[in-house]
Predict the structure.
Amino acid sequence: MKASESLLFVFLLSFLFACQKSPKDFEPNYDESKVPEYKLPDPLVFENGKPVTNSSEWYSKRRPEILKLFEEEVYGRIPEFEFNQVYVLNDCDSTALNGKAIRKQVTVKVIVDDKSLDINVLIFLPKSKKPVPAFLGYNFNGNHTVNHDTAIFVTRNWVMNNEEMGITGNKATQKSRGINSNNWPLDLIIERGFALATVYYGDIDPDFDDDFQNGIHGLVYHEGDIPAAEEWGSIAAWAWGLSRVMDYLETDPAIISQKVTVIGHSRLGKTALWAGAIDQRFAVVISNNSGCGGAAISRRQFGETVERINTIFPHWFCDNFNDYNNKEKNLPVDQHMLIALIAPRPVYVASATEDLWADPLGEFLAAAAADTVYRFLGLPGISIKTMPEPDHPAMEGYIGYHLRTGKHDITPWDWEQYLNFISFHLK
Ligand code: GTR
């Protein structure tokens, strides 16, 4: 390279670097008076402006239309590819949780051509003579972080570095065993007669921008090929993984597969909502503090925005979603329509008072706006008209909602509400 060329190269690099936005370039808006005026797209009006006239038209035409819009503009369509699947039982112990539960560890092996992906499922079951309803939800840091039980395998996959958990070099160790047990109140879940199945989300797609070379994308695309602009990002990949676990749960005689609730917190709450939309085998969907790209109305631009999420997490959504950075009003959908896709099944949206980043009011408004679809289908939607007081859950309708006092988290109190909601609606 000539001196002038290298100068140009250095100039270009610094220009690109200067153009790149970092987290501190996004000043979030937390002022309600600065929320732009907006009009939500009507879930009951087709793209061509015609109204939906009856429920069969909703199910056969409008619902697929909305689903396609979310696929192509937000999360990305899952491409068609062939795979085989085998289930391997690695562990079964009926003395778990001080003899109160049965623990199973099952690997769902997904085989694509000559490569395979291991989805490691940790299951706790109450000791029951009859099959039981279940929760299925991803965990953030590995199955072994969910409980102190020393028999739970420590994940060998890439994990996010975390000083508090003693994770360096992206490898989990014994140090993080049980570290998230407060988010997974197993005793409560088991006592209430539910099973819990959980998987580390990194089993399906490690959560960093690697240009889709690893995880399930790496099995599907070859030789540097990457998803097209309307094809799946990581959230859609994680949602796909939940369906593979559901395939297994359908074969497990200890579980009532028609009563599986998909649950997730934060980015995994976004994932739970999308999984519930694309896979109607999930009987109930729970979104805990899912925020932007989850339950919150994007058009409000309150807290985390579309531009910020696409910039900081470029691998989460499909590339087309970038077209709406700071142009939310052009979106053909908004997140109330994602919640409406769950109908006629029960769905629960939860926020936390200090979690302004996830826009609690925007989450409530989306849940409330999904109500029109439930009512249209002859079902009780949400039972309240305005944002409830903190810690006053509304769960009589098919759309449950609560605002918990406290920070961005999933707590035993949140779980108690979910157990009450499910027990009430899935009698
Ligand atoms: C944040 C992100 C949120 C939320 C959260 C989480 O950094 O901005 O959208 O998903 O992470 O998953 O904990």
About this structure: The longest helix spans residues 55-75. The mean pLDDT is 95. The radius of gyration is 22 Å.
